[in-house]
Amino acid sequence: MRQSLNQETIRLVVPADIAETWLPQQISAFSLSHPDVLIEAQVLRNSEIIESVDIGEADVALHWCRPDDANTVDPVATFPIEWMASRSFSPDPLRALPIVVLQSPCLFRDLGITLLEKMNAPLRITMAATGVTGLWSAVGAGLGITCRVALGAPDGVVRYQDEQLPSLGMVGLVARTKRAATRSSIELHLQLMTAIRELEFHGSS
Fold this sequence. Notes:
By secondary structure, this protein is of the alpha/beta class. The protein is built from 6 helices and 10 strands, in the order E-H-H-E-H-E-E-E-E-H-E-H-E-E-E-H. A 5-stranded mixed sheet has the order 2-1-3-10-4.
């Protein structure tokens, strides 16, 4: 099928946590109401998303931020950061706690490791994955625990309850558009903000 000469293209960049869950439905709904708009969605690391929107490469972007980050806009919604593990995970009390992380830079990795080190908890990184899919696969296989929002967690990976682990707090999800945003980009931005608020209301499980 040939692309219409009048077709607008919107570049959307998002983190993997949401790209593999509810985002496809949002894109599908938007495309039905905007048949002349093509959405090019790309999954990037959080730092790459922020850079992409800062330099104007992305038309619409979703990215994570810590609530105490003074250098970002207010988040649309906030979600709890959880310790996550395989349902059958059982740590060896005689060995350092195994953890699975993403390669740096990663907001969740930095937070989890910093808090564990502050309480002098012995830990060992069993895998530093290059992407969220690999991270969830490693956690699901029982290689260790991780800290992340529960969005996108596969079957068999659940919240890990251990009173000795530090509380991880909350993380915000920011929705942004480029400064010279088109009308269609703004409409997509507004639709995604509404969907994010509904996601927050219904919980992240």
